[in-house]
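for ur thesis appendix - Polyisoprenoid-binding protein YceI. copy paste whatever u need, i formatted it the way the template wanted (i think)
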Amino acid sequence: MTIESTPSGLDAGTWTLDGSHSEVGFSVRHAGISKVRGKFGEVEATATVGETLGDSSVTATIKTESFFSGDPNRDAHVRSGDFLDAEQFPELTFVSTSLAGQGETYALTGDLTIRGITLPTTFETEFNGSVVDPFGTTRAGFSGQTTISRKDFGLTWNAALEAGGVLVGDKVTISLELEFVRA
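the 3d part is after this line
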């Protein structure tokens, strides 16, 4: 269902991501028994809010070199040609193509590009509200999540386990906690 108006409390105009109050992270199954989490430290995004959802859009750029999981060896491996190939593909990008929903829940669909492969991806998002902080800055918060197949984006490296199965799962959950400021 598409609702024509934007969420209450979200003024039309340009909103810029506040990277110090936001997180773009992911989790993936490791060895079939646990999940490993990581995040990206350098993310830029702009939300253009129109009078209607159809007039609204989001663009984001993530520096692949900024990947961090807390393990320097794993971080270097994920940045290598086996996975993100940060040297050849320094950025991940997202460009929205549609926004639909109602109330506080929305489906944000767009083109996600990883390793030069672009595929349509939908993030289930939640508008967490807007406030004016003690310094007079208007802020708006969003949470979002999607699950992708890493193999679809050319992230095919893996290692077989002696007991069966593989080291790295195919399904990757991308989680967003985003805070935007009104320009």
